[in-house]
Amino acid sequence: MAQGHKMEVLTEYGHHTITVVGQYNHLGNIAHHSGTTHKEIRRKIAQGNAAFSAQRRTLFQNPHFSVRQRADLFNTMVMSKVTYGMDSWLFEDKRTKSYFHSAIFRLYRRLLKIKPDAAISDDIILEQAHLPHPDIGLRITRLRYLALLYKCETVTPWAVIRQDQAWCQQIMEDLQWLWNLVSRTTKLRDPRIHFAEWEYILRYHRSYWKTILQRAQKLCALQHEDRLLLRTLHRDTLAMLETHGTLQSAPVKPALLTAQCASFFGCMQCQKRCRTRGGEGAHLFKVHGITAFERQWIASTACEACLKEYHSFDKLQNHLRTATSCRAVLHARRLQRPLAPGIGSSVNSQLRDQHDGLLPVLQGSGPLEQPVPQRAIERHHNQLMEALAILALDFTGSDADELFLQMKQIILQEPIGWTQTRETLVYLADSLTEEFLAEISVGRLPFLDVLDRLGDPNTWGFLTEVLYDTANCDHLYDLDLYEHWCATLADCD
Ligand SMILES: [Zn+2]
Ligand SMILES: [Zn+2]
């Protein structure tokens, strides 16, 4: 347990000393100051794996039991350990949720004796294991917990629970989910309008509540099976048509979202399109070792312009990405710094662990450096701009197309993103002087046209290239994708 500072408190029963810590163990769970934590989930998963390993040969992987029997045992002996205490949790961030999902699926794979890296989709695993999706499992856990709260309702701190609006909202969604599944099998009405009926069941008919929950779980599994069957049917039909029928080639769908199609990012040297600006930055760093612009201003975890302490490098970098005034001040200082660790580095993760969300951004104080005259932040690539300008001046002849091709070649040799390439071309066009233009052999207007064409994403085939998902018959796609393909095929005829 972390050692914290002591705090003296005076209560009606006397004087106490409380240790102020970021987290402590409370009834077998780590209570963390932020609520749910990644650490606690990791601990629960480890407990689940230990429980699994302890009875692996005798029970969970014992071929003398049917899969269904093993799944039941797994639910009572392993999953109960993993989800213990989770009934009051909310998964707020995506990272934690996806960690939880994949950890549960790894456990399911162990139960089925499937290798962790075997290419079997999660949907098929669920069907084979006769176990619910982790999200559904959590819903059931929460709804069971709700019954427990009613069971001891005289001591349940309802006022505290009502305060936790996010959790109440989640329970309402769970009830709605339950009702959607079982509405045709019970007389219960919509819980949003007739909650009293549900309360009555929770208070006086607990065994019926269990029956409803079991029924919902079963229906959910059947629905899942149904969807899987439908998808398999689509896949097999398309494959059959392609092999024996009239289908010329497998149907395709653009791999980019519509919004992504209209924006262009990529690497000029590798001639590779990226989906997002972040992807472009990541490619430039991973493949060409080009770091983010802001990192030249980072020496410690504090911003040297506004003196705020951010406790880790990634948070400072995020600040410098958007804080216009800090950017301007730091840029004016013309800093030359050795590179500090970046977002994915181990030093940064250590700092994040150490900080553990315990402190807010702290405003530092102290003498500031003498202000220097500000200069505009130039995002263009100096060498590329010079190379292009020199080529244009040295070019003899009147063929603008030839000049265009040569300039294009120079750009393609540079490890540079499309974003900066366009900025460089705009910068070059803006800084052209009349004297410079007079020297250009192809003439003023054709040269400006060449720059225009270079700055057009359509000039670069790879930037506008739309990659397609094909309905390969060795892969099971989502149902909506099959529906999309079928609709396209119907339109073609
Ligand atoms: Zn590249
Ligand atoms: Zn700042």
Task: Note down, in words, how this protein is organized.
- There is one protein chain.
- With 493 residues, the protein is mainly alpha-helical.
- The protein has 5 domains: 1-29, no CATH class; 34-131, no CATH class; 142-249, no CATH class; 256-289 and 378-466, no CATH class; 291-377, no CATH class.
- The chain is built from 22 helices and 10 strands.
- It has helices spanning 38-54, 56-60, 67-82, 94-112, 122-129, 134-151, 158-163, 165-182, 195-204, 206-244, 258-261, 277-288, 313-322, 324-332, 346-355, 382-394, 400-413, 418-430, 434-439, 444-454, 461-464, 479-492, and strands at residues 5-11, 14-20, 23-26, 29-32, 252-254, 265-267, 272-274, 308-309, 362-363, 468-470.
- It has a two-stranded antiparallel sheet. The protein has a two-stranded antiparallel ribbon with strand order 3-4. A two-stranded antiparallel ribbon has the order 5-10.
- Helix 1 packs antiparallel against helix 3, helix 4 (94-112) crosses helix 5 (122-129) and helix 18 (418-430) runs antiparallel to helix 20.
- The radius of gyration is 31 Å and the shape is globular.
- It starts with a strand and ends with a helix.
- It binds zinc ion (ZN) (2 copies).
